[in-house]
Amino acid sequence: MRSRCGEQIDKNSFLIREQFDIKDPFHIAKARPLTIDMVKSKLLDLHKRIGMPKEVAITHGFRKFFTTQLIHSKVNPEISEMLLGHKIGLASRYYRPTEQEMYAEYEKSIDNLTINEENRLQRKVEKLEVEKADYESLSAEIEALKKKLK
């Protein structure tokens, strides 16, 4: 949509930019990143509109949810802390996981972190296909044994 409206998209473009008026070429061309204050403002607006109690921490709630899902997914605790941007103290002197190791641990939590059930359902389908193949194989073996017995 942004490129259709005339914004030049390249490797230096912001992933998420501030909103712009599609009729105003100046705002299209002069992309500015979405700031933390803008995100907070949008979250506060949503918070009020859905009637959530004031005591509920808004932005910190995302970090809390992320941490909880990493724990439920049994992600390596040191890598969890690193994914949260925390320092892991003395362990960081000796333990330096590769990007692939970090991603492999993060991957454990993807199902718990995503709202869309597509990943979970795809894995379930794959598991059921394997079980079906096993069942069909065993069923064929049973039929072969029945024929031998007759």
In short:
The chain has 8 helices and no strands. The chain has 150 residues and is mainly α. Among the domains are: 56-113, no CATH class; 117-150.
Descriptive report:
It is a single chain. With 150 residues, this protein is an all-alpha fold. Among the domains are: 56-113, no CATH class; 117-150. Helices cover 59% and strands 0% of the residues. The chain has eight helices and no strands. It has helices spanning 25-29, 36-49, 59-72, 77-83, 91-94, 99-107, 110-113, 118-149. It is extended and about 85 Å long. The N and C termini lie far apart (69 Å). The model has no long low-confidence stretch (mean pLDDT 86).
Oligomerization state of this entry? single chain
* Overall residue-averaged pLDDT value: 86
How does the helix and strand content classify structurally?
mainly alpha
Helix content: 55-70%
Major β-sheet, in short?
Answer: none
Note the run of SSEs as H and E: HHHHHHHH
Rg, alpha carbons: 25 Å
Distance, first to last CA: 69 Å
In terms of DSSP E residues, the strand content is: under 5%
- Give the overall form: extended
* Count of discrete alpha- or pi-helical segments spanning 4 or more residues: 8
Low-confidence runs of at least 5 consecutive residues: none
